[in-house]
Amino acid sequence: MTPSLMNFFYSLLAGTLIVVIPATVGLIFISQKDKIQRS
């Protein structure tokens, strides 16, 4: 594998760790905290 391809995969991994995981955790936290009250 070429170094630029490895850097591409590392950047995808870093983007996943920095953006996707915290956003998912935040959405789950908010959805559990702010439940809709149905009558």
From TrEMBL:
TM helices/strands, residue ranges: 6-30
Top-rank taxon: Bacteria
Assembly with partners or alone: PSII is composed of 1 copy each of membrane proteins PsbA, PsbB, PsbC, PsbD, PsbE, PsbF, PsbH, PsbI, PsbJ, PsbK, PsbL, PsbM, PsbT, PsbX, PsbY, PsbZ, Psb30/Ycf12, peripheral proteins PsbO, CyanoQ (PsbQ), PsbU, PsbV and a large number of cofactors. It forms dimeric complexes.
Source species taxonomy: Bacteria, Bacillati, Cyanobacteriota, Cyanophyceae, Chroococcidiopsidales
Keywords: Membrane, Photosynthesis, Photosystem II, Thylakoid, Transmembrane, Transmembrane helix
InterPro entries: PSII_PsbX (IPR009518), PSII_PsbX_type_1_subfam (IPR023431)
Organism, scientific name: Aliterella atlantica CENA595
Principal subcellular localization: membrane
Name by which UniProt lists this protein: Photosystem II reaction center protein X
Membrane topology listed for this record: Single-pass membrane protein
Any single Pfam family the record assigns to this protein: PsbX
UniProt record similarity statement: Belongs to the PsbX family. Type 1 subfamily.
Subcellular location: Cellular thylakoid membrane
GO CC list: photosystem II; plasma membrane-derived thylakoid membrane
